[in-house]
From TrEMBL:
Keyword DNA-binding: yes
SUPFAM superfamilies found in the cross-reference section: YbaB-like
Pfam families per the UniProt record, alphabetical: YbaB_DNA_bd
Function: Binds to DNA and alters its conformation. May be involved in regulation of gene expression, nucleoid organization and DNA protection.
Annotated compartments: Cytoplasm, Nucleoid
InterPro entries: YbaB-like_sf, YbaB/EbfC
Family to which the UniProt record says this protein belongs: Belongs to the YbaB/EbfC family.
Name recorded for this polypeptide: Nucleoid-associated protein GCM10010448_23860
Coiled coil (UniProt feature): 10-37
Biological source species: Streptomyces glomeratus
Keywords: Coiled coil, Cytoplasm, DNA-binding
UniProt main location, coarse: cytoplasm
Length: 112
């Protein structure tokens, strides 16, 4: 048998896998600390979430508060949080997408 006979070097593969795992952990940590915003109602409601999708803040302009119409306010809050989460998902794709492709496809549990 020829040494190396076209077989991948297991040590090299292991090192590559470890580096990818470290890169993935670093990217996930960065996402957990990066905040993105979403808004609705022309800025009347603003939501802030982390790149990992955790809601961190909610700002409601007093003009959005109408005691007679709480449904509209609720809709604006939901829309702002959804917009922030869409930004978080785009950030996840940007940070983790190349790492996931390096693993031969998507990573189970991640939204892409």
């Amino acid at each position: 048998m020829i040494p190396g006979g076209g077989q991948p070097n297991m040590q090299q593969l292991l090192q590559q896998a470890q580096k990818m795992q470290q890169d993935l952990a670093r990217a996930q940590e960065e996402l957990a600390h990066t905040e993105v915003d979403g808004q609705a109602g022309g800025g009347l409601v603003k939501a802030t979430v982390t790149g990992a999708g955790e809601l961190r803040g909610l700002v409601i302009d007093p003009k959005a508060v109408d005691p007679e119409d709480t449904e509209t306010l609720a809709d604006l809050i939901v829309a702002a949080v959804q917009a922030a989460n869409e930004s978080a998902q785009a950030l996840q794709q940007q940070k983790l997408g190349p790492l996931a492709q390096g693993l031969g496809g998507g990573i189970p549990g991640l939204p892409f």
